Amino acid sequence: MANAKPRRNKPAPLYRWKWEGKGLQSRAMRGELIGRNKPEIVEQLAKQRIIATKVQKRSSLNGGGKVTHVDIMVFARQMATMVRAGIPILQALQAISDSIKKPAMVALTRQIMEDVSSGASLSHAIAKHPKQFDRLFVNLVNAGEQAGALDQMLDRVASYKEKVESLKSRVKKALWYPTSVLTIGIAVTMLLLVKVVPEFESMFEGFGAELPALTQLTVNLSGIAQKYWLQTFSTLIVSFILLKSAARRSSRVAYRLDSLMLHLPILGDIMHKSAVSRFTRTLATTFSSGVPLIEGLETAAGAADNRVYSQAINDVRQDVTTGQRLHFAMRMTNQFPALAVQMINIGEEAGSLDAMLNRVADYYEEEVDNKVDALTSLMEPIIIVVLGALVGGVVVSMYLPIFEIGTAL
């Protein structure tokens, strides 16, 4: 067909190769390299004046694992260190590729290497992987290349990523710690009701006496659990999957879920402060790197990690585009804390907006940290009481009839 698009040949898969060879003065050497085929490994060794005597394929590097934000953070820090030391970009990428163990990250680094070796800039090479390298990363690397300060920009990106990931981990701790412990407690209680209580129930039938109220309640709950536990569990799993799918497909559902998270007691305050911190940190990083404020706001909207705040930041960007000052546009959204707005106002007046944005981010990061510590301290006794009531209540109710028989005798 005339309109058929030409097929692009897929690059050959990458493999990790174990090699043995002889270097200068016939010195025996061995190690590992990454490449697509045996001749490529032999050629790499030849460039290092090593004659390959044995090359053996070890494992594939395609589709192994997933590149995470932490992987990108480490990549940025390693690149910043090597570029600052004067190592050429291609050699720095090669060194990082050889030191990484995760197959997916190795494959990503090799793809960047191939683009750079063919003449592309580092910013252009990483821009081909938007899932791994966000807009902020690409923009700052591009600015660093143009200004001849790539090491500084990579260092700035790495510091930004480290602070954001630290903030994320604290928020996840606040969300997952109580959830996981209570889930385990409920699971143990269900196990007791479905498997253990029926054994006691068959024993109680031989007593021929009326059971205590607490024991009878536990037996009734056990009957309900045995009859409906599978339907209940299936309903919860299906509901979770459907809700997650709906949030992925519908921006309105996702917005409402994020809004609900912000209105949760205690946790909602942590989510608010986390979003403000990420917004101000991102904007400070872009603004201090010479990125225009309008473009920085667009990048910050994507980094807020909450659709309510993303919408508010987009509204701020539109107002700033029409000539409004940043702090006034933020106040108009009724979303940002008054303290943050006032501090940014001072920064604008003093001509030190980037420094003030960083101070706001530091302040709210510390607030999140304190809130998470307070939540953890508060939840520990509550969780102990709840778990004791759930598990201990079932156990005590099963032994009440036995205690009554013992006292009667």
TrEMBL record:
Signal peptide: none annotated. Residues 75-198, 279-401 form the Type II secretion system protein GspF domain. It is a multi-pass membrane protein. It is found in: Cell inner membrane. It comes from Vreelandella alkaliphila. Keywords: Cell inner membrane, Cell membrane, Membrane, Transmembrane, Transmembrane helix, Transport. Belongs to the GSP F family. Its main location: membrane. This is Type II secretion system F family protein. The chain crosses the membrane at residues 175-194, 228-247, 381-402. One of its GO terms (biological process) is protein secretion by the type II secretion system.
